[in-house]
Amino acid sequence: MNVTTQKGLLAIAAVVECLTGVAIILVPGIVIALLLGVEPNSAAIMIARLLGVALLCIGIACWGATGDTVGSARTGTLRAITLYNAGVGLSLVAYAAGGMAHGWLVWIASILHLCLATAFAASGYSRPASAKSGV
Fold it and tell me: How far apart are the first and last CA of the chain?
């Protein structure tokens, strides 16, 4: 895939992560209930809010990488968001398949993250030859 495809994927990830992050910061109990189908305790709500801040930061980093066509920062962002999506997708699948999640949203979130991980991985991370040679 080309740089344009990567920019599109980064923009999608940026929007999804920022919106999710803000939602978790503002209404963590509702997000947890929808995602996992459980009522969170006060510790879970605090951890969720910390997660919300992290997701907002991930989204901002992805958005920033959309403006960069080459470079180690963009490559690092692409690798990080790929690993993040794969890890989250697989973790959610394992949690749900183990019978611990009772929310319907967990499956949608799992599929979304695994699809994004696959798309990012398929887009490739190598810089164009002109960028590698310094031209």
Answer: 22
Pair of tokens at residue 9: 């994927």
- CB-CB contact of 29 with 52 (8 Å): no
CA 64 vs. chain centroid, Å, equals: 14
Residue given tokens 């799992």 in the structure block? 110
What is the secondary structure of 83-122 as a DSSP string? Answer: HHHHHHHHHHHHHHHTT----SHHHHHHHHHHHHHHHHHH
Nearest to 108 by CA among 48, 56, 51, 35: 35
Radius of gyration for the chain, computed over Cα atoms and rounded to the nearest angstrom: 16
Task: Give the predicted TM-score (pTM) of the model.
Answer: 0.83
For every one of its 135 residues, what pLDDT tens digit does the chain have, with 9 covering 90 and above?
578 889 999 999 999 999 999 999 999 999 999 998 889 999 999 999 999 999 999 999 999 999 887 788 888 999 999 999 999 999 999 999 998 888 788 999 999 999 999 999 998 865 544 444 444
Contact status, residue 92 vs residue 131, Cβ threshold 8 Å: no
